[in-house]
Amino acid sequence: MSDRSITATSPDGVRLSVHEWGNADGPPLLFVHGFSQSHRAFLKQAHGELAKDFRIIAFDLRGHGASDKPRDEAAYTDGRRWADDVAAVIQTCRLQRPFLIGWSMGGRVVSQYLDVHGDDRLAGLVFVGSRTVVTPDRSFLGPGAAMLAAMQVSDPRQSAIATEAFLRECFHPPPDPAEFAELLKDNLLTPPWARAGAQRWPGQFDAALSRVIVPTLVVHGTQDRIIQPAAAEYTAQIIAHATLAWIEGAGHMPFIERASEFDARLKAFARTVVD
To answer: Considering only Cβ atoms within 10 Å of each terminal Cβ, which end of the chain, N or C, has fewer?
Structure first.
């Protein structure tokens, strides 16, 4: 499947790198990646069985990958800007009732979108390894998240060491070395000011999530060391009609670690909505 690359521009002028694969006539799946990652986290979905039936879109968040990386702290701490980024991608790609899929920090981006724009233009929601509520006591963070602070320092060597350690904590069991090396290169594209700004972005989305009416799937790896499984249970409680799906033996990246199972669950969920 070919990779079609385009640019979406958010209302504040930030240019977002957007990529598209798969069946142009299929239901659209819009993937939103996590902290210090990029659209390339979803290449197994882009090049796998899902692409035969679905239109797959993923973009680099502001400050990440090939998207713009503004130095203004407000570009990251102003929650509406994250929401408007998603809206800009939906508009630029002319997506009609997409499924919005947020992984890790991407789940917060999706929650922010819901808070600002609601869910009336969506077909469904999927939260993957996400912590949709951010509390001062850092509830729901697992032991693998201990590297987050060190990833924000300005010293390149220290930041790189912390980034590699963090990425290793995302997997259970350890990943393929070549695959890990490619993901690490993408992670290192996020500068310290973007990481720090994203971590200072506040968020309390219980009210927005409680208003969700579209079908919702919450997916979580049972061995996730970045976001505790309790976070998935919390999200599923707020969205009363949500379906909670566990992927046994997977860590923080079940769409890579257990790609076939993840894709099958996602496809089955989407088909219940569109068929």
So the answer is: C
